[in-house]
User: Fold this.
Amino acid sequence: MTDVPGAPGSEDSRFVTIHIERTHGKKSAGRRAFRDQSSKENKITKACLASMGFNPTSSPVNLKWSVGGWDWEHDFNIVDSADHEIVLGTDSLEEIPSGIPEAFPIFGRRMNKEEREKFEQWERESRARKEAEREARKKKAEAEAQAEAKAEAEAKKRQETAARGQKHRL
Assistant:
């Protein structure tokens, strides 16, 4: 996993990378990383790990778990302080599996108003950027098709003109 906070070779220790993999029944089941530059919530407390039955000896610790057909994986730096909570970023806020709060309370916290607005803005900008790229590709393809049709028409016209010239010579 790349760009894990604190990991050797990570681009920026402020980044949090959460891999989300859909494993249930969709043909387009895919994987994406949600990177939140403003978040430093890459830490987990020893007490929380202990409450989940983990007792790791080194930091960072990589946690993988599956709830409701979802597989989750993340690297966390272990800290003593209790003032760290994890915020999950997903394609839509409704996609946070409802089973997580019962299984692991720390992973089930919903975004507060400010986080939600920030995330929704990021999502809107991302959608707009993808739509603009799609439109640009479409326009480029149309322009190429028109140029090709024009070139074919000109070639056909030249052939007809050449054929008429040949006919007159005979």
